[in-house]
Task: inverse folding
């Protein structure tokens, strides 16, 4: 019995008359005194952010909430339309689209940066580290994560703004610095600008906030939960699921192809 | 062509060089200036909350984030353990457990209140409305939503604290008032206390914030997204999925039953 | 220790060198000898179906697999497009749309039938039971589940075909019989045909196969899993996610509305 | 208008009075005449399988249905317990665990085989191709997908049985052959047996059935949908979700750790 594997957590404990969150009393201590934004860093790391850090986290949480009538919210609206009894399913549908193709580059960029410059590494020569990153990607002929943008060749205004806030709030640290150097160096070699894009900026800032690279998508997932809820709310006020179906149907072509 | 059904939204529009959120420029106007908590009400209703309302919303967002090693985060941890490439799936798994049994009573309670006292109804005699609610449930022999608690017969401390904050922030309005009267009246008739529970309080406060009843679970879904992320983060630091499996296996009994 | 709650299952047990399924050896006994269709009833009830029952189950599994470019597969395609690393998420997205609005009527119809005529009830006067059902719905002014169809006023050809197969396979039993009587009686009272629809037929046949009402959607969920996979496969061969986005965008109107 | 992107599908079309599936009438032509197993290959490829191929596909569909009280079905049971109104969410939860760690090796193994020996490649020297695969993995110091097993060092009985059925049904082709050669060669070099495991066998057989590598998990996802439904059905008959919670709680340790 002594050796049976324990189930250990340090996050929360629900007792009969109180709930502890990382050792603090939810009702007595946290509720009414902590903002949700503070709670984000507290839950994820055990640290209550400073006012400056909170402003940065707010920006990371807000930036990906709303993007208009895109595929993720279309999935939510359709799901709500056919399963209104389970709003949680409609929100989950929106989250499931948060995969590697767009948002994933936050994770990949953060991993790339932390692999090249581990959290416990002494401050090194960032230009040298940036060079190693660019060399490594060039050798494997893959695109560097977090830089370049199809539409915004000269700079994604959202990334520019995030870095501006990172500087104002003094969250801007060596990972942001490193990513900018990677961007400059890769652009020089490519002979065209390869500015940091919005998901790259999020990845670097997440690291400078002390998060592990796997949590780089955390802000987007929280933001997208809100975005999905807003679209479900609008779907309730002004249902569009059937018009969306009709829009697709209007361009539908049925062409039976040969067996594969 | 003129009559083709349009796909209308007022929430967001992604243009080439800017993103609009309910008519406002995301990068220029909102980012760096709006907190996530403000964004919640802005996305859901178009209104930027006052500081008082923000404090209330923070409490609603924070209260259901963390509950320890419960089924929803166990589902997230298992999902992450077998599908670490898709953290979004692990978060979605936690959301899918946000159904009718526990959290649903926020929705049902809010619907009950707004059905009895529509948003556009003049201020009425709240005791009379409360009586109608209690009569109606008694007639159908179903439990009134949002009151009573298995463990906290004398009052769920989380509900007490939420109403306290609702009063401090002056969000406390006629729906909170009505629910408290329903609770008192139903308790009087039952001959035992039937205090407002935490999901009931959330439902009433959501209505007093001007949200539709279907959005009463919105705060819990956002909070649970954060909670799932925190447990996934802890799972990465200190993997427990296999110990959880072992704990279940230790009590496993295989009993083949007769065909059904 | 003696009183600790056990975790009991009679479905499966994975031992070191074999896997048991409802007491039978997976590799030695089932694999190669049992069809998936037989496995469906065996897993759900412990009974291996007869050839006739298998033909019926095949029809129930096949009937809802494919419906063209509808919302559920659009959600799958979008999810795959942005998260190709996690095909399981794209399939899950399709399942999440399997809610109350269309498919749910299988469950509701089956529940209605079994509430009126419990599984252990003696064979009664089915016309009398049908009359009680119709009266009950009339009293609560709700539509009877499983009958009537917007498009197929004179009979959903899928329901007709399912009942035909049910008769050929001798699965047709008292629940199918009862639902047809309900349909006739309700139509007579309404003065217009209210034929059994496809989800109603599925619900009645599921009961006549001995399944509990909650499993009436099981066939649809299995079928939809296949349908989603087929659409993901086609999306890989001939990507349409961006054209779907474009179709929606072509009809997009951005109209910022007043705060709610 | 002429250039607007079309939304093309060859899978299904729902017309007013009939549904077409890959050009064939669902009600008139398929229903009652096609088994679900035949439908699997027909939907995925447009080909109706032979009786032999059907037997093989049945084995692939059945083999991963049931594994006892494992994490995926625990997630389903918990989800059903708290959200019984949405059985589709409980099934989706089980699918979300079908990620890279266990099942993924079907995909990776199939991709490895088809990358080394493209579908349109002439029959080559399979030993040479196997050598190239083993060399490539050795060079990158990663484990070859689809071979080796922690528990079954001398051969996973499920893989052995699948290959036996593949031979009996004459589905066994060059991809099965190639994987066995890879297994032998890698084992020789490692100095210990590295037998084909069950997910590897599934990947090779899927290719020999003519499926693309991305569909190698299709059988498991369909099977797991059934498995989840069976566990939900058992949860309804004999609820275990709370005992599962209790089993975890019995080993719970709350240890607040230092901030990260």
Result:
């Amino acid at each position: 019995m002594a050796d049976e594997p324990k189930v250990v957590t340090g996050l929360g404990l629900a007792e009969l008359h109180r709930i502890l969150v990382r050792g603090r009393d939810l009702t007595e201590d946290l509720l009414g005194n902590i903002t949700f934004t503070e709670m984000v860093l507290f839950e994820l790391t055990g640290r209550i952010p400073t006012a400056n850090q909170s402003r940065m986290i707010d920006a990371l949480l807000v930036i990906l909430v709303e993007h208009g009538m895109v595929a993720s919210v279309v999935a939510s609206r359709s799901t709500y339309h056919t399963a209104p009894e389970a709003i949680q399913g409609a929100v989950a549908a929106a989250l499931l689209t948060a995969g590697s193709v767009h948002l994933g580059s936050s994770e990949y960029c953060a991993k790339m940066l932390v692999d090249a410059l581990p959290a416990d590494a002494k401050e090194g020569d960032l230009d040298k580290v940036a060079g190693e990153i660019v060399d490594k990607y060039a050798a494997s002929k893959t695109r560097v994560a977090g830089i370049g943008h199809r539409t915004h060749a000269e700079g994604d205004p959202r990334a520019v703004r995030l870095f501006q806030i990172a500087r104002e709030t003094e969250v801007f640290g060596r990972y942001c610095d490193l990513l900018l150097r990677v961007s400059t160096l890769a652009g020089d070699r490519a002979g065209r600008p390869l500015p940091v894009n919005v998901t790259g900026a999020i990845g670097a800032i997440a690291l400078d906030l002390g998060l592990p690279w796997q949590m780089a998508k955390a802000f987007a997932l929280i933001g997208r939960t809100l975005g999905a809820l807003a679209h479900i709310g609008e779907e309730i006020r002004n249902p569009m699921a059937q018009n969306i179906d009709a829009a697709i149907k209007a361009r539908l072509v049925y062409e039976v192809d040969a067996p594969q």
Q: What stands out?
A: Chain B touches chain D at residues 68-72, 74-75, 78-79, 81-86, 89-90, 92-93, 96-104, 233, 237, 241, 243-245, 247-252, 254, 260 (CB under 8 Å). The CA atoms of residues 56 and 166 of chain B lie 6 Å apart. The two ends of chain B are 57 Å apart (CA to CA).
